[in-house]
Every structure is written in structure tokens, then in C-alpha cells.
Amino acid sequence: MNPTPQTAPRTRVRDIALLWGLVTALLWLVETVDFLLPADLDRYGIIAWNPERLPHILLAPLLHSGYDHLSANTVPLLVLGALAAWTGLTRFAAATGVIVLISGLGVWFTSPPHTVTVGASGVVFGYFGYLVARGALQRSLRDILIAAAVVVVYGSILWGVLPQQPGISWQAHLFGLLGGLTAAWMLRTPRPPVATT
């Protein structure tokens, strides 16, 4: 049975809540395993300029340097990720893939050699850029309002794209943001042609 207009938003909220519940549980499970076992999972992060570790750009967002690092990323990841997923999980999955690839490749190419980078902050910056750019490109009232709210609440994170504090990857932030902007442009919905009389 197809959802009615009244039940469709409920189904979407349920799907997004389930998705982010699972993602959050996975992130915290990975960090707990890393904490409890002598696994040293952080070595599977992005190691700059190491060709053998290039595939690790897909794993790095799942890894964190500790619970403080993970805690700092969890809430913005949930909020921005849920907003990014609102227009559909297929488009959201594609946007996430673009963000992870561009952020990871940017870190791999621009970080000092042999530096190990872990964390989901590049994805956080990517969702921020994606939501803001989507509002500018789609120009629907919903997307514009979401973009405005995101800028008001999270706009200060943009300082994170500048080199500031040692040990924090501004490269992940910058290229994550660029990945989000790219994803919004790639996945934009073409506007219908305007007829003139």
C-alpha cells in the first residue's frame, strides 16, 4: 500500500531516525572496540601520500581518536545528516559518497606525509556545505529555510577550514565542505523551462 500524504512524512522521519540510530551505534561501537581491545583501529585512518592506504579514505570517517572526539562530531553529524537525508535516502547516499571521496582525497593529497587522519568532521562540513548549496541551487522555500537555519546554528564552523590548532585536520574540513558543495551541484534538480509570452 502506498503511503498517503499524511503518513509519508511519518515514514520518512522513521526511516531517517532508524538510519542515524544505526550510524550512531556503529560509530560508538567502533570506538568502544578500539578503546577496550588492543586493536589500534586508528591506524586504518587516512595516511597521507601512502598509496597502499588510499582505500582508507572510506574507513576514516568511522574512526575517532577518543570519546571526546567522537562526542564532538556526533550531534552535528546527526542534525546535519538528518536534514540532508530529508529529500530522499538515495540522493543522500550519493551526496555522502561524494563528500567522503572528496574530503578523503583532499586529506590524502594535502596533509603532511605520513600523517594519520581520522574522524567524521569532514562529513559534518560536507553536509553543511551540501545543505547551504542546496538552498541556493534549488530555491525551494523548504531548502532555503533549511539552509538559513543551518547557517545560523552551525555557521561558525566555517572557521574550521583555516589552519588553526595543531592536531585538527583543517584539510578534512575544507575538502569536506568542497565535497558538499560539489554534491549539491551534481545532484541538483533541473528547473523546468520558463515560457514567455
From TrEMBL:
UniProt cross-references to InterPro entries, sorted A to Z: Peptidase_S54_rhomboid_dom, Rhomboid-like_sf, Rhomboid_protease_S54
Membrane association type: Multi-pass membrane protein
GO molecular function, one term: serine-type endopeptidase activity
UniProt keyword annotation of Acetylation present: no
GO annotations of cellular component type: membrane
Membrane-spanning residues: 70-87, 92-109, 115-132, 144-162, 168-187
Keyword annotations of the record: Membrane, Transmembrane, Transmembrane helix
Statement: the UniProt record of this protein carries the keyword Membrane: yes
Domain Peptidase S54 rhomboid span(s) in chain numbering: 56-188
One Pfam family recorded for the sequence: Rhomboid
Compartments reported by the entry: Membrane
Protein name: Rhomboid family protein
